Amino acid sequence: MITLTTIADLRRQVRGWRADGKRIALVPTMGNLHAGHLTLVRRARELADRVVVSIFVNPLQFGAGEDFEGYPRTMEQDAAALVAAGADLLFSPSVTEVYSKPQEQQTRVEVPGISDILCGASRPGHFVGVATVVCKLFNMVQPDLALFGDKDYQQLLVIRSMVQDLCIPVEIVGVLTVRDENGLALSSRNGYLTAAERKQAPELRRIMLKTAVAIESGSRDYTGLEEKAKLELEKAGFNPDYYTIRSAVDLSEPTDKMSDLVVLVAAYLGKARLIDNLQAHSPPG
Ligand code: PAF
């Protein structure tokens, strides 16, 4: 695996591959790789001739008081895992390589509407940071396709919107969430959980499954289902940020006529802010 840290070297390498007619995939990450990331890399391997993985803890997507400084950085382990998963190139630029100007002078990419709700409402500016860095990475690598986990459902929709609105010629591939044996979605932030919280964490998924079963059995009392689930979460030791049922297409509020729905949750368990989602189909009324 080649490891590069500058945009100039990255472009030179990718240009060579493109001249040889290779199809190039990008897997953008912030490192601290787990089995979920490695599934993206392996899927990329199946879909493309060359796989580029970026590791960049993006300061622009962290708000004041969030965990930018403390975000786990495990470059050596990550590089070894990427070699084993079959990545061809690891791109790990410095903050100044990606952002040559002070943050307040940096050009930004904003996807209005979908960026302002749910995680965007709780973390103002977060999705501007995500869209900006992903757009920059797309311009640096110019991949044919890019892969993202379904766990960050809202992020995936923000990126799909950005690509469509800005006519960016990159195919976006969403990949199913990888879970541990108890159903907890894998996330770098699971590392913040204590041993006791790890045992509590799978309750999140269990409560979501109950909501999904109710939807699929024909319940359309979405507000009632949300309220019940929030109470259950609190009883299980979580501090819910949001628990909501939305359109799976655009995250708008559900109507009785919609069939493709998604249950989305963000909840604190101790220091960890866990997010997860589950799609559910409402039967015709
Ligand atoms: O999902 C992530 O890890 C990040 O938000 C991403 C897409 C790599 C952008 O920094």
Output the CATH class name of the largest domain: Alpha Beta
Q: Supply the CATH architecture of the largest domain.
A: 3-Layer(aba) Sandwich
Helix and strand succession? EHEHEHEHHHEHEHHHEEE
Largest beta sheet: strand ordering: 1-4-3-2-5-6
Determine the mean pLDDT.
97
Identify the overall geometry.
Answer: globular
User: Major β-sheet, in short?
Assistant: 6 strands, parallel
Structural class determined from secondary elements? alpha/beta
- Give the total of domains: 2
- In percent, how much strand structure appears in the residues? 15-25%
Overall helicity: 25-40%
The count of helical stretches stands at 10
> CATH H level of the largest domain: which superfamily?
HUPs
**Estimated radius of gyration:** 19 Å
The CATH topology annotation of the largest domain reads as: Rossmann fold
Low-confidence stretches: none
Between the first and last Cα atoms, what is the distance in angstroms? 54 Å
Hetero groups: pantoate
Task: List how many beta strands DSSP finds.
Answer: 9
Mind sketching the topology for me?
Elements: E1 2-4, H1 7-19, E2 24-29, H2 35-47, E3 50-55, H3 75-85, E4 89-91, H4 95-98, H5 119-122, H6 126-141, E5 145-149, H7 153-165, E6 171-175, H8 195-200, H9 203-216, H10 222-235, E7 239-247, E8 260-269, E9 272-281
Parallel strand pairs: 1-4, 2-3, 2-5, 3-4, 5-6
Antiparallel strand pairs: 7-8, 8-9
Helix pairs in contact: 6-7, 9-10
The structure holds pantoate.
Pantoate is lined by residues 28-30, 58, 61, 130, 133-134, 152, 155.
